Amino acid sequence: MIVVGVDGLPPGVAAAEWAAREAVLRGVPLKIVNVVPEWCLQDGLSGGVASIGTWMRQGGETALTEAVHAARHAAQDVVTGTSLLGGDPRRKLIEASQGADLLVMGSTGLGSLRGLLIGSVTQGVAGHAHCDVVVVRGANPEPHGVVVVGVDASEAQETVLDFAFDEAATHRARLRAVLAWNCRQIAANATVGEEPEISTRGLAEALAGRRDRYPDVQVSMEVVEGHPVDVLRHAAGSADLLVVGSHGHGVLSGMVLGSVSQALLHLAPCPIAVVRVGAAR
Fold first, then answer.
1. Residue 203 and residue 223 in contact, taking contact as beta carbons nearer than 8 Å
2. pLDDT tens digits, one per residue of 218-247
3. Exposed, middle or buried: residue 222 (CB in 10 Å: 0-12, 13-18, 19+)?
């Protein structure tokens, strides 16, 4: 099952459309969720409070109806269900992610926090969801037939690569595996001038076994000097999906959502998948 959170704003509608196409490709149902304040769903409200509660419930139901229409227009064969939930949007979406294959959101906030650039809801859910998360960004241009995956030579990249290869195979897309490096990151492991070669060997080893498992996926690997955010943002300019891991590395490895992933949630020019790795998975 794929779960998509919507709030009646255009980014949420775009998320529903993306999620519907993905659900059909994966052969799973789509659950469309809207979250309103919990008190709006309580019985016994009266006066002005009751009127406000009714207005908010109707807004949530309208958002769900619009999202269903958009989803079915994007993918006629999609099987949809809806749910109007009451409570904190972050907590409810994290709860909804339990048992889901994928949680999809738009690039703005949800519920009472909608309208923020990325939304504390979106960022908070991406860091704590029980499944992989896709945040739909960009203007839905013509498809490029390309998936870009950011790798980092850590053990966590195995999970990220598995997701990226699955997506590329499902969408019959090319896969670009991109590793960003700089001298400060790996100076302890290599002499000056060896950094690109060592990074390339590590990436090639990670890709080798998956090439056999996904013979129809055309794969390229790129080792680029620069900050990972800058490198991946540039690479994603001609991609349909950018895939990154959920945790940081090095000094920031203890963060729930890595600094690179956080930055790309704001800056990626296309939909971005945040894959659960390590203890978060």
1. yes
2. 999 998 888 899 999 999 999 999 999 987
3. middle
